[in-house]
Backbone:
């Protein structure tokens, strides 16, 4: 057990987000991606609603997502603000990935559980994936912005009206994975009440 807790501490502390522009194009086998997804499925959630839904893009699916996103940028940017390099970047982050897991939350039909708790449950599930990926020496990056919260993306993903997209989890390998990040002391973020 002592060995296990040491490994767990190391895994949690050493997991880093590596930007997809640093990915080398090497593919992850689908079986490993399924193991990552299996661990996503064991996140805590209120009322066992299991609100996480994942759309996995790989192979020509990546091109579909990349083209959708770049076209969205073109359509929604005025001519004077349009930057061809940004249009290309909208594609390359996706195309350099092995798999992109689009993170979605399916809203409970009865809406009994508060929406924030469903989003929290999905975030727990994503952390399970990031840690599992790290344990396999696979790089991951949770990205949002741009198209993430738009109705156009919801339509592209065939999400229900009350469902949400919460970002992309880019997966891949890198020759130069990120190893550094920083956190301020936990002691400065905790109030301990024992009297
Ligand atoms: C919900 C969510 C969305 C994020 N979106 C972005 C993003 O669009 N762009 C970005 O640079 N970082 C984004 N991040 C932060 C990175 O994924 C990463 O956590 C951060 O760079 C810290 O790196 P570390 O995880 O290695 O400590 C997001 C994180 C979360 C939790």
Residues:
């Amino acid at each position: 057990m002592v060995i296990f807790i040491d490994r767990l501490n190391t895994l949690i502390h050493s997991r880093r987000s590596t930007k997809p522009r640093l990915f080398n194009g090497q593919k992850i086998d689908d079986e490993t991606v399924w193991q990552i997804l299996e661990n996503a499925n064991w996140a805590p959630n209120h009322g066992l609603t299991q609100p996480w839904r994942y759309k996995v893009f790989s192979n020509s699916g990546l091109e579909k997502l990349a083209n959708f996103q770049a076209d969205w940028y073109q359509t929604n940017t005025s001519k004077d603000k349009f930057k061809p390099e940004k249009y290309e970047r909208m594609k390359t982050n996706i195309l350099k990935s092995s798999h992109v897991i689009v993170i979605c939350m399916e809203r409970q039909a009865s809406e009994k559980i508060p929406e924030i708790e469903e989003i929290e449950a999905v975030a727990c599930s994503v952390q399970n994936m990031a840690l599992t990926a790290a344990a396999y020496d696979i790089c991951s990056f949770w990205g949002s912005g741009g198209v993430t919260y738009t109705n156009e993306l919801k339509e592209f993903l065939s999400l229900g009206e009350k469902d949400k997209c919460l970002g992309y989890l880019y997966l891949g390998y890198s020759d130069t994975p990120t190893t550094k990040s920083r956190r301020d002391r936990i002691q400065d973020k905790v109030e301990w009440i024992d009297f």
